[in-house]
Amino acid sequence: MNGAFFSRIVYFHLTVAVCCTKGCSVIRNMCRVYLFLSVFVTLFPAPAAAERVRTAIPRATVNYLSLPVAEVKGFFRSEGLENETIVIPGTTAIAALVSGNVDYSGAGGSGMRAAVRGAPIKAVMFQTEKVTWYLIGGPDVAKISDLKGKRIAVGTIGDTQDTLITMLAEREGLTARDITRVAMPSRSAASTFLALKTGAISAAVVNPDESLLAEKEGFRTLVFIGDLFPYPFQGFMATDKMIAARPGDIKRWLRAMCKALMFIRERPEEAADIALKKIAMGNMSRPMVIEGVRRFAQAFPEGVPGLPSPQGIKNVIEFDVKAPLKIKEDIPPEKVLSLRLVREVKEELETKR
């Protein structure tokens, strides 16, 4: 505390005390209470208000359960942060990030492609080391080889889902010509299941919780697509300006997120309870949500999440940036990634485990 300021406080309190000695007993008692409270407030000031941050995500699903977990379990609060989560589609979220309307954006793929085109943003972490998608099949599909001559729903032609489904088919002895990929962007679980029931498609790429709903409807989960190879997923972006000027603030946010991801992996039942309260889970029962959380966590790396493996970094640049943009030349990782801060957070948390 500043010495001159402290002296003024003491002088003021002594003046009040002298005045109080000349009053009646009631006034003296009131003054004693005043002096006690004044000293208490001076020595024990109220805690500083939490810093408000805004995080944009493309969809409120189990894939982004880390945010409500970090809020409910106090991981943001322990870092002096108050997080507000906003659902904004990919390209719109990038615009919001660049303009400063949000602090972090979960539109990792769109964000990295925007960074290659010159947007002043970088990916600062990835929630998973693998994609979290599952491939489900209709009543006439028991294994991937049964998809020969069939139609498979993906997001858009040429996107990551399309690329991985083609690779998966080739791994099972099929060729790209043996299957037909059908673009079904922004589809709901209900529309996917209807397309499967009517025979419009024979298989579809879905999220972990949707794979469980599909099984409930009588469809089969054919494969966890994340087992193909390391492919960091669900990246979060920040602006170059924030990375340069406020690295400490970013690390506080990263610590909260990494702790939330570890909580999800280690305590799926509690994480599922948070999901049921904070995310629209439809008609999923608690056991189904718990299993959905476990399937999501299957994509996490071992240890502290957040930092992709070297091979994962190569793959995400190749398939999430170069392939969609049809870029042939190499892209330096530092063009789209800034992972120094999450690396430091990972090292800090590992020393405490």
Helix/strand order: HHEHHEHEHEEEHEHEHEEHHHHHH
Spatial ordering of strands, largest sheet: 7-6-8-5-9
Structure summary, number of beta strands: 10
Provide the helix percentage: 40-55%
Query: Quick one: biggest sheet?
Result: 5 strands, mixed
Radius of gyration over C-alpha positions, nearest whole angstrom: 27 Å
Mean pLDDT: 87
Number of helices: 15
Shape: globular
User: Which ranges are low-confidence, i.e. pLDDT below 50, for 5 or more consecutive residues?
Assistant: 1-22, 33-47
What separation lies between the terminal Cα atoms? 36 Å
**How is the quaternary structure best described?**
single chain
Q: What is the SS-derived class?
A: alpha/beta
- Estimate the strand proportion: 5-15%
Characterise this structure.
With 353 residues, this protein is α/β, with parallel strands linked by helices. 50% of the residues lie in helices and 15% in strands. It has a five-stranded mixed beta sheet, sandwiched between helices. The longest helix has 20 residues, at 247-266. The model is unreliable at 1-22 and 33-47 (pLDDT under 50).
